[in-house]
Amino acid sequence: MAGKRALVTGGAKRIGRALALALAEAGAAVAITYRESEGEALATVAELEAFGGKALAVRCDLREEQSVVGAVAEAVHGLGGLDVLVNNAGAFETVPLEKISVAEWDAMYEVNTRGPFLVAKAAYPHLKAAHGRIVNIGSLGGIHPWATHAHYCTSKAALHMLSHTMAKAWAPEISVNCVAPGMIVMGELNPAYEQFALKTPMQRNGRAEDVAAAVLFFATGPHFITGQLLAVDGGLGL
After folding, report:
1. Is 3 helix (H, G, I), strand (E, B) or coil?
2. Which of 6, 43, 60, 66 is the most exposed place for a label (fewest CB within 10 A)?
3. For residue 19, how many C-alpha atoms fall within 13 Å in the half-sphere facing its CB?
4. CA 47, CA 57: separation in Å to the nearest integer?
5. Which residues are catalytic?
6. Which residues pair with residue 157 across a beta bridge?
7. Residue 6: helix, strand or coil by DSSP?
C-alpha cells in the first residue's frame, strides 16, 4: 500500500487500532478518528508513524453530520487525498429484546448504520477521484441473530445491505466490501470466551490480526471484487 492514503474510523484502540497499524505496516499513510479516546489516539499515531509514513488523529462524532464532514475533510487535507476508507467505529450493547428502549435502539443505528453512511458520503468524491475502496466492518451478528443483541444485530445487518448498495451505486470507480468478524478477543481473560472457542470449528476465537488480514485483502486485492461480505469467524457461523 505504498503511496496509498487510508482513513480508519474508531482507530484509536482495539480492533480499529489493529487495522490502522496493519495498513501503516503495509506502507499506507493513515488517519484515524476518535471521539473520546484522545490519549489512545495520540499513542496510536505515534505507533503508526514508527512505520515511517504519515499519520494523524482527527476527532469525530459519528452521530453529528457536521462533525463527520469536518473530520473527513481534515483527514483528506492531512493525507493529501484518500484511497481507502475503513468504517470500523461502532457500538455494542447487550440488552434483552423486550427491554430495549427506543433511545437505545436509535442510538445503535445512529452509530452502526447511519455513521458509516455519513462517513462514506463525505469521502465519496475523494474516493471516486482516486478509484478507491471502502471496507465496512460488519458483524457475524448481522448474519445470525443473537437473542440479547437485537438492536446491534439488526444495525449490522443494515450495514451489510448498505455495503451491497454502495457497491452497486458507486461502481465502477469505488469498490465496496464488508468484513463481518465473529468472536474476536483482544487478550481479555474471560471463561465465557472459551465456550465460543469450543463451538468454533477452528477451535479458537478470532484475533484482531485476523480481521486486519481480511481488511488488507479488500484494500489491496483486485478492484474488481466488490459487494462482498466476508465472515471472519473461524466457522462459528456454520
Report:
1. coil
2. 66
3. 32
4. 12
5. 152
6. none
7. strand
